[in-house]
Amino acid sequence: MTAEDIQTHDQPTPLGCNPADLAWVESTVKQAGTSFAAGMRILPPMRRYGMYAIYAFCRVVDDIADGSDPLPQRKAELEEWHARIARLYEGEAQDPLERVLMAAIRFFSLRQADFDAVIDGMIMDAENAIVAPDEKTLDLYCDRVASAVGRLSVYVFGDSSDNAQKVAYHLGRALQITNILRDIAEDAARGRLYLPADLLNRFHVPLNPIQALSAPGLEDVARILAARAQDHFRKAFATMKLCTPKAMLPARIMGASYESILVALCKRGWAQEVLLARPKTSALSKAYALASSYIP
């Protein structure tokens, strides 16, 4: 029996949750205006609200990490989320987000370690502004804030196979590297520089976030990372072919949307005068990326 069958025959609402709680997580997604919304909307209600709950959780902890409260307070709030997640696995939920998350955890057998990884990624951001990390630290950060979300998502999509986990690994890294390349100037304004130190040093780019923006070598660094992201996209889309096709459709849509951003970034470049210009994507470019994701 599928999750959709459970909802139709045994549950009056998706995940058996209070409509007001479901409305809360849905409104959080809508207010965020996330580019992932299209991938979530195609899901049947049970899975859609499971994804809404995961996204709302990510949004809440990300807002804490990026907030203006003193560091000790932000870190304490994030550490408290470790305790809150642990309580969900013990059957205790206190607010709309926790109640829908607990239902999703039960219905889709979501793993506590993946929620904890997301929180730990946010603590990395809050504890110290990440500036020119080494490759190992950057990869760990990408795993925690992106691939861990992918591991949760594929369970909700309906595929918990090893290949689905590989999709989460590669797609998460592709999406996060694309985010990093898109937000270099914004991150610099917040004292952050997620580009790896070895590449910066190789192309004589200062490790200072603001100074890096005007360095001629920044273009070379960005293009190497863009190639790395594209390789992760290719591996993710190739591995999707080994997974349940229906379960992977939301991941394909989300991946294609972000791949079109990466293509637009490569066309725009990373010269200082264009760094603040958001890359322009179109419905046609996203459709092309989605179609291309099926091609071997």
Automatic annotation (TrEMBL):
GO MF term list: geranylgeranyl diphosphate synthase activity; squalene synthase [NAD(P)H] activity
CDD domains linked: Trans_IPPS_HH (cd00683)
Gene3D superfamilies hit by this protein: Farnesyl Diphosphate Synthase
Alphabetized UniProt keyword annotations: Transferase
InterPro entries registered for this protein in UniProt: Isoprenoid_synthase_dom_sf, SQ_synth_HpnD-like, Squ/phyt_synthse, Squalene/phytoene_synthase_CS, Trans_IPPS_bact-type, Trans_IPPS_HH
UniProt key word Transferase: yes
Keyword Transferase: yes
Pfam family, one: SQS_PSY
GO biological process, one term: carotenoid biosynthetic process
NCBIfam families given in the database record: HpnD
Identification of the protein by name: Phytoene synthase
Naturally occurring in which organism (per UniProt): Acetobacter cibinongensis
Organism lineage string: Bacteria, Pseudomonadati, Pseudomonadota, Alphaproteobacteria, Acetobacterales
